[in-house]
Amino acid sequence: MKGMTSQIIKGVTINCPIETGSSIARKNIDTIVDFFSVYLKDKPFFYSLWVEDDPEVVTPFVNDGIAVCHYASHRGWDAVKAFWDPIHDEMTGRFDWFIDEIIVGESPDVIVTKSNSIIDVHAGPTWGNRHVAYNGRYVQIFRFSAGKVKSFEEYYDTALLNAAYGGGE
């Protein structure tokens, strides 16, 4: 995007314009920024961004050696917390988010982000008590209900993650 300058909102670098005429979509985009801004920093606030009933996290496939990263629908609070708690509770270090594109669907309650991250963390027992450092690229699909995250679906290069951290260690 020629002439586009990055902006930092709540610690999240936005590398694209935020363009929408929908106040609902704008509120949901603000929630996405909050979602990334409190990653590893404020678990109670992170969970407050989600719907009260039946939240869902959908993840791509990675081998069994990578802790909780399996293709699955993690539906309901017990499953969602079983997915996010090890990330929030067992990772310390740098996990910076950069949003490169925001795509508002026909419904303002469906927003796709293309993002990247710089990760340099020490991961706890769920992740094999190891140092994890990589630059990730993602496509994420957020679905909202009344301004809260109803579901979060993420796709990334699972072959790269498996090659770096799967099995054999």
What is the topological layout?
Blueprint: E1 7-9, E2 12-14, H1 23-37, H2 43-48, E3 56-59, E4 72-75, H3 77-90, E5 91-104, E6 110-123, E7 131-145, E8 148-156, H4 158-165
Parallel strand pairs: 2-5, 3-8
Antiparallel strand pairs: 1-2, 3-4, 5-6, 6-7, 7-8
H-E order: EEHHEEHEEEEH
Going by helix content, strand content and strand pairing, the class is alpha+beta
Radius of gyration: 16 Å
Termini separation: 41 Å
**Topology-level CATH name:** Nuclear Transport Factor 2, Chain: A
Which sheet architecture does the biggest sheet show?
8 strands, mixed
Task: Tell me the helix content.
Answer: 25-40%
Shape call: globular
What key attributes describe this structure?
single chain; about 170 residues; alpha+beta; Nuclear Transport Factor 2, Chain: A; globular
Mind explaining what this structure looks like?
- The protein has 169 residues and is of the alpha+beta class.
- It has a single domain (7-165), classed as Nuclear Transport Factor 2, Chain: A (Roll).
- The chain has helices at 23-37, 43-48, 77-90, 158-165; strands at 7-9, 12-14, 56-59, 72-75, 91-104, 110-123, 131-145, 148-156.
- It has an eight-stranded mixed sheet with strand order 1-2-5-6-7-8-3-4.
- The N and C termini lie far apart (41 Å).
